[in-house]
Design goal:
Elements: E1 14-20, E2 25-30, E3 40-46, E4 54-61, E5 63-65, E6 69-71, E7 76-83, E8 93-98, E9 109-113, E10 118-123, E11 130-134, E12 138-142, E13 151-155, E14 158-159, E15 165-166, E16 173-177, E17 180-184, E18 190-194, E19 205-209, E20 218-220, E21 225-227
Antiparallel strand pairs: 1-2, 2-3, 3-4, 5-7, 6-7, 7-8, 8-9, 10-11, 11-12, 12-13, 14-15, 16-17, 17-18, 18-19, 20-21
């Protein structure tokens, strides 16, 4: 505090956005509130007038939250959270934020375990679960609803047909098409995961898409994958 002054109402490190066009709400994940890697937040804005957003609510969080999934039915926002600045941190969590503005616990935060350095989140698999990818090589599946989410964890270590061994592959983003999840490894390549095998003893990785150098983002229109 002797070096850095409070930044007031400004955002220190806004990272992700999500919009609910039906309710005219913008949701912002602020990865850090301070220059000292201390604290973060989730904020809700009324964007009825898009060029003049007004702040509706703020939830204080730990630092280093990332992608957003909006559960508009149960009115929760979910975001993986790495907790600290160490990218190889072995601890992580998924934050559930109450975005029901009529609720007494509006902007209340509940946390669930997520493994090391979680980042990507996508929903939903055929079982209605949200999937979270972490740099520890683990894909977590979460049941969603009114209570805190429960988790099933699956390690994606695998050996490809060309003999390449992927041990605890660092994964950070994913997309879901039907019963498959396409999970990117930032160092290169994409794992194709059979979602019916999550949480079981069988290897859930059916294929490895090679020749994809340093992927950083992935999305789908339900048929094709789009990878940066």
């Amino acid at each position: 505090s002797s070096l850095f002054q409070p930044i007031g109402t400004y955002l220190g490190n806004p990272l992700m956005l999500a919009v609910n066009a039906t309710t005219s709400r913008l949701y912002v994940v602020n990865s850090n509130n301070k220059d000292l890697y201390s604290n973060g937040s989730v904020q809700v804005y009324n964007i009825t007038s898009p060029t003049a957003p007004t702040l509706v609510g703020t939830a204080a969080t730990d630092s280093f939250s990332s992608q957003i999934y909006l559960d508009t039915v149960n009115q929760f926002l979910y975001t993986p959270n790495r907790i600290n600045e160490t990218i190889n941190s072995t601890s992580g969590q998924v934050l559930q934020v109450n975005i029901n503005e009529a609720s007494a616990s509006f902007m209340g935060v509940t946390s669930s375990t997520a493994g090391g350095s979680p980042f990507g989140i996508a929903c939903c698999d055929p079982a209605g679960q949200a999937l979270v990818a972490s740099l520890s090589g683990v894909l977590n599946a979460y049941t969603l609803g009114a209570g805190a989410p429960t988790m099933t964890s699956t390690n994606l270590s695998t050996t490809a047909s060309d003999g390449t061994v992927y041990t605890n592959p660092a994964i950070n983003q994913l997309a879901i098409i039907g019963a498959q999840a396409f999970v990117i490894i930032p160092a290169g390549n994409i794992l194709v995961v059979n979602l019916s095998k999550l949480g079981g003893s069988a290897n859930p990785v059916d294929y490895v898409i090679t020749g994809v150098t340093s992927p950083r983002g992935i999305a789908t229109d339900g048929t094709l994958l789009y990878v940066t």
